[in-house]
Amino acid sequence: MTTRRLVLTRSAAVIGAASSGLLLPSIVRAQSDKVRVGFMLPYTGTFAQLGVAIENGFRMAINEQGGKLGGREIEFFKVDDESNPAKGIENATRLVQRDKVDVLVGTVHSGVQMGIHKVARESGVLNLIPNAGVHIATRAQCAPNVFRTSFSNSQPTLALGKAMVDRGHKKAVWITWNYAAGDEAFEGFEQSYTAAGGTIVKKLGLPFPNVEFQALLTEIASLKPDAVACFFAGGGAAKFLKDYAAAGLNKSIQLYGSGFLTEGVLEAAGDAANGVLTTMHYSDSLDTPANKKFRLEYAKTFKLQPDVYAVQGYDTGLLMIKGANAVKGDLGNKKALYAAMEGATIDSPRGKWTMSKAHNPVQDMYLRKVENKENKVIGIAQKAVADSGAGCKLS
Ligand code: PHB
């Protein structure tokens, strides 16, 4: 039988089944049903604003394409993961088993991500990570159905050490929350700072999401380092910036951070954030048509200023659109879907980026300085920063 005859015969059978009301073959059902998209994000707690920004960005990308994915309508499902790792598996299972999502978009917190990761690997459901940077998800436990559109936790800090030493800050204290994101941000910092000739005087930490910084700030004052470097994010970052300034340390010890420190918190932190230097894959002030258009449209739509989390949500939407368009909405065609996502170049507000073999962005890191409630780019700290992808067997 020729290929053409085969196609005709098959479609005749499909039409017959459909018109007689019999169970539709899965290919027809896949094309006509709505795509089920599940958001598993924090909508409460210290990362609540991050979850909202990611969802807004994702929806904005989809709406720019007429609200569809590969020609199919979308149905959204939502779970508030509360940035609570203890509920990670249960919440991800709910989206996969009860809501039967085709794609799970989540999450922010690295510990919660590990719950999602287990469920994604066991179920084979497509998981797009719009923030959480936990290394193992795109290293030893990388998976064909897991793609990250954000960063790995050590990527921003791999670009930080040299920038600090270049400014003459050679003795630093490191401070963070003691969990995967803080520990792995330290890994990048330690590597880049010591390679550039810096010395880490002391490592300080507190449990996530505690914000009782006072005793630690007193210790920093007595250690008198040249600089402080840190990882904090969300509501906790705003509090750290304010407490650092209230203790008078912003006058005497230059504060640096993985760029999340100054994302989405500049209104809340006010003058306390002025002069803080960070490295990050995005900046409000990037002077590109893609960023200007994005910022204008986001502000008009959501009556909020976008930040890196909104950009990551937007890029997650762009990646999903590329994949879905490549398979004309047939998300069951996983081989072609994943190939399209792996080969994608995302024309992002952050600048163009590509996907590594381990499914993590390869991207430029900017050096930024806070001035008048804006993260101003003062240079590219490092071009095309890639995570090592150590132990990942995807090729
Ligand atoms: C993480 O837990 O991986 C995480 C959370 C918030 C950030 C960055 C990383 O801003």
TrEMBL record:
Source organism superkingdom: Bacteria
Chain ranges of the Leucine-binding protein domain: 34-373
Keyword Signal belongs to the record: yes
SUPFAM superfamilies xrefs: Periplasmic binding protein-like I
Entry keywords, A to Z: Signal
PANTHER family listed in its UniProt record: LEUCINE-SPECIFIC-BINDING PROTEIN, PERIPLASMIC BINDING PROTEIN OF ABC TRANSPORTER FOR NATURAL AMINO ACIDS
Family: Belongs to the leucine-binding protein family.
Name recorded for this polypeptide: ABC transporter substrate-binding protein
